[in-house]
Design brief:
The structure is a single chain. The chain is of the alpha/beta class. It has one domain. Helices cover 17% and strands 39% of the residues. The protein is built from three helices and seven strands; from the N terminus they run αββββαβββα. A seven-stranded mixed sheet has the order 2-1-7-6-5-4-3. A hairpin with a 3-residue loop joins β6 and β7. The longest helix has 14 residues. The protein is globular, with a radius of gyration of 19 Å. It starts with a helix and ends in a 20-residue tail after the last helix.
Length: 161
């Protein structure tokens, strides 16, 4: 998900409570706080010697050890205000990949992608998903690449044309 898509979904759900499902049916405390927004410009070299670069925006969430659950529920409008304040200070690429950094006493801190955003009548739920590592140079380092099935014909709705 890009930052641009995320912000558009927030705008469509103003006034709702923002909820984070970091593991199936397991949620961050409702009064979590957005503590930091990281603008990460990543440059890497894979095991085959090829250079890569991309940008990620990482929104860091934090649970207050002195909770006030009912009075400080994170609302979508509050998240929008924080993100606008951040963007006034620093440019963030709207096409950057968005990740959420979160952890608590029951879950190790990790950067996760948003796998889905589910809107209910009262909430916007961010469902987080794992970010798996992968080899970008399988052809160079000897990892077998599974051949994809070849489509015999082109039919409407098949995605081939």
């Amino acid at each position: 998900m890009t930052l641009e898509h995320f912000l558009a979904q927030l705008e469509l759900n103003r006034g709702k409570i923002l909820s984070v499902e970091y593991y199936p049916n397991t949620y961050a405390e409702i009064d979590f706080h957005i503590t930091e927004v990281k603008n990460c410009k990543i440059q890497s070299v894979d095991c085959g010697g090829k250079q890569h670069q991309w940008t990620e925006v990482i929104i860091q969430l934090w649970e207050d050890p002195n909770p006030n659950r009912e009075k400080r529920k994170m609302r979508v409008t509050k998240a929008i205000q924080i993100l606008k304040r951040v963007q006034e200070v620093q440019y963030f690429d709207p096409q950057a990949t968005l990740k959420i950094e979160y952890g608590n006493a029951r879950f190790h801190t990790a950067n996760q992608k948003i796998s889905a955003m589910v809107a209910t009548e009262q909430k916007l739920i961010l469902q987080l998903g794992e970010v798996a590592s992968d080899c970008k140079a399988k052809d160079v380092c000897g990892v077998e690449i599974q051949a994809s099935a070849v489509q015999e014909s082109c039919a409407p709705g098949s995605g081939c044309c």
